[in-house]
Amino acid sequence: MKKSTENMQWKRPKIAETEVTMEADIQREALKTAALEMNLKMEEEFEMLMKQKEILGMDQELKTGMGQERKQEMELELELELNTHNAVIYHWRVWELMGLMQPPEMPRLQFLVRSAVINVLVTLLFPLTLLAKLFFTSSLKELFENLTITITDFVANLKFINVFLVRRQLREITDILRVLDKRAKIVHNQEELRVLHQSVKTAQSSFRTFAWIFVFGTALSCIRVAIARDRQLLYPAWFGVDWQCSDLAYWLINVYQLFGLIVQAIQDCANDSYPPAYLCILTGHMRALELRVRRIGYNQPQPLAHILYNQASYHQSVYVQLCECIEDYINILRLNEFIQEILSIACMAQFVCSAAVQCTVAMHILYVVDSNDLSTMMLSLVFFMAVTLEVFLICYFCDRMRTQSEALLDAFYACNWMDQMPQFKRNLIITLMRTQKPSFIYAGGYIPVTLETFVQV
Predict the structure, then answer these.
(1) What pTM was computed for the model?
(2) pLDDT tens digits, residue range 240-269?
(3) Which residues neighbour 134 within 8 Å (Cβ) at sequence distance 6 or greater?
């Protein structure tokens, strides 16, 4: 009995130990299964992330490729559209319309007939009617009103005639611009192309600014006649008929004056804005050449097998770049000379006109005009601001061109000339001797046109 009891006590710990072992095995199996499931889940998530990354990478590559293609297309458009003569395209259209330049597609006879009709009816007769009125003026108020318009109109016709006299220089300028544009396309530098395109936009904006001024002045003259209690003309002029008592004469004279006023406004818009336009083109090409010169000598060659030959060819290519830039500089100097020829008389006439009109308008407003006559005062102020703006724009762009010519001198100094061959340095010294003299435009061949001149005028 005692023995059987001992056997039972020995078996109980054995059974308990077996049960614990089985539970541990079950827990280990459960942990293995959970770890395996977790690994499978992580692998699936990793594969999904990799697929997403691959898709994003493909999209990015596609976008980058499309962006590069678009960039190349925009660069190609800039290169193909480059034509700095477009800065004065509006002016040439006006000159063709007014009979100064013959359009290529128009027959010679048709051009001569149209030119004769417009210039006889407007360019010749319109200022004569204004001048004749000066001898029949009965009051100081009418004298000042007529004198302001007469001075402006006669100077405008003088500048119009000057354009006719410098037609050859204008065509020479067009040829030089074509050569400089070709060089910019060959160099194919995007910053240079942007500078030239911006100069074209600025020149065209100056034309539009003057156009709005003349539109406002013309509209103000028409409104002044429309709201007047008594019969008035658009501008005081003499026609030799009693338009106060004849309806037909009154309306015919007003129609003629309106036609003449529109034609004169178009002529004045082109004549007053072409000096800033050509100066803007010249400054743009100077700036493009400055950028081109500053890059000379800084593009180091890639090492090849024969390093001595590579260095020699590199120095020769840099010397060729300098020679090409010197040729561009010579073309810019020629462009500057032709612009000086076409602007000399125009600038001098503008200075004289501005001084005379400003004095006349000041006398008119301060001592003659009635303070209640707002339309007359506004018209006089429009004349005053117009002639002042004309002088300011010319002086501003001339001063800007002078500053850019000085920057071009700094560009030749800034190129990498120290590592170049002696022939390079010799040609550079000769060029620097010429660039020491800044470029100016002289009114009448004597007065430098700068912002300091504007303050004095």
Answers:
(1) 0.77
(2) 888 888 889 889 998 998 898 889 889 888
(3) 143, 146, 147, 150
